[in-house]
Amino acid sequence: LEDMLKQFQSEGTRVKTRFLSNISHEIRTPMNAIIGFSHLLGDEDVDGDQREAYINHITRNSNSLLNMMDNLIDLTLIETGNLQLKEDEVEIYDLLKEIYEQYNLDRFRANRERVALLLNVREAFKKAKIIADKQRLSRAISCLIENALTQTKKGVVEFGASFAEKNHLVCTIKDSSNMMLQDEIRKIFETTDKEEDWYNTSDTVGLGYKLASGLIRAMNGEILVKDSSFKGITIEFSIPVTMVTPKYFHSGVEVERSHEE
After folding, report:
1. What is the tens place of the pLDDT at every residue in 79-94?
2. Which of these, 110, 172, 208, 255, is most buried using a 10 Å CB contact count?
3. Whole-model pTM?
């Protein structure tokens, strides 16, 4: 038993060392950009257009660094079983619109003009309010969109949501990336073995999928990976929610109740 304990401790140390090495690289990349462009702003020869470009780089990398740290905190809480979900009243369309506006702006800052970002929701859905953890729901969707944009070099990334049942929210993210990635992505979502936990994930895309998977499962949700109509990948997840208004939906269409009901 002592030998087994030593072996587990040694393996845990090795995995955590690998994780810290990987994540230190990911943190160093935006930090170097922030420091470098901050120094360039002090150059008297920098004109207005260059200054604006440098500020955009600093802003984008600062947001990336902040987002990365928030993601790491949630990953740690998920791994240790300490993630506590909140019950917020969420105007779901407004949430999706905020995410769209954020990534649509970042798309140009990151020179992703060859990728079209689309938000697709039904008109009746725009009235919907649900009870859910707004921050964690937003983070799960954002991780999947970020990965879709990263993997799509040219084409379309489309996301949206609907109500498949009265109390189930369905979110869909489609892209034009590569159908060959389906099995790899599916394995990340399906893996529950501790030896394949998030410490072993060596890239930010993998970390994004791990975080999204952990958050969705924490919200008692399910994830499905399939072909996209854009010749890429579709990731669809559903989570149970409590409806606030309107209270009766069928496939995203509001249903009026009669007085007799």
Report:
1. 788 899 999 999 999 9
2. 208
3. 0.76
